[in-house]
Specification:
By secondary structure, this protein is an all-beta fold. The chain has a domain at 20-82 and 106-145: Elongation Factor Tu (Ef-tu), domain 3. The protein contains no helices and nine strands. It has strands at 12-13, 28-31, 51-56, 72-78, 86-89, 98-99, 112-123, 126-130, 138-145. A six-stranded antiparallel β-barrel has the order 2-3-8-7-4-9. A three-stranded antiparallel sheet has the order 1-5-6, with no helix packed on it. The structure holds S-adenosylmethionine. The site of S-adenosylmethionine (SAM) has 20 residues, from strand 7.
């Protein structure tokens, strides 16, 4: 969980406003082998990673129709253990800082993670995929094809 001490030298936190709108619905949960942030790969999108599972909650199962035809799926998830108040960060604790919007750190005002995964199999409301980088139990926000199949 986020700790007040969870900040590195040269990083800058602000008094972030209390989130009040854009209520999101978690459409499912992500099952991965990783219980701590340190164990997670730094970045997903890799076809070599272990098979992970996207569990879709009802009533959203019907929204999966056609998903099995996709090879690559964009997955959006809520990085629920990330703090949300840093504007400058020091990736890799190097002492060099960058603005939050210039990096893909999980720490951001709205901690939305995006990975493009490879679909391995679909079993009902469960999709087996490769290419994730998140903790076991991470809430799932959305799925969409990597690209629009037809441009009009
Ligand atoms: N691929 C996504 C993106 O680019 O938007 C996320 C990238 S982020 C650098 C991935 C890192 O976030 C992991 O290595 C891990 O340290 C951390 N992380 C993973 N799941 C998390 C969660 N549920 N809450 C907070 N941090 C998480």
């Amino acid at each position: 969980m986020t700790q007040a001490s969870d900040i590195r030298d040269n990083e800058v936190a602000v008094q972030a406003p209390t989130p009040s709108d854009a209520a999101l619905t978690y459409i499912g949960r992500i099952h991965t082998p990783w219980q701590t942030r340190k164990e997670c790969p730094r970045q997903g999108d890799s076809e070599d990673g272990p098979v992970c599972e996207l569990e879709i909650f009802e009533p959203w199962g019907a929204a999966l129709e056609g998903v099995e035809e996709l090879e690559r799926i964009q997955v959006l998830y809520w990085l629920h253990e990330a703090r949300r108040d840093l504007v400058k960060q020091s990736p890799g604790n190097t002492g060099m800082t960058k603005g939050t919007f210039a990096i893909r750190s999980p720490v951001r005002p709205n901690p939305i993670g995006i990975s493009v995964v490879t679909l391995v199999a679909r079993n009902g409301n469960r999709l087996q995929v490769r290419g994730l980088d998140c903790l076991d139990g991470t809430p799932l926000l959305d799925l969409k094809p990597e690209r629009c199949p037809h441009k009009h």
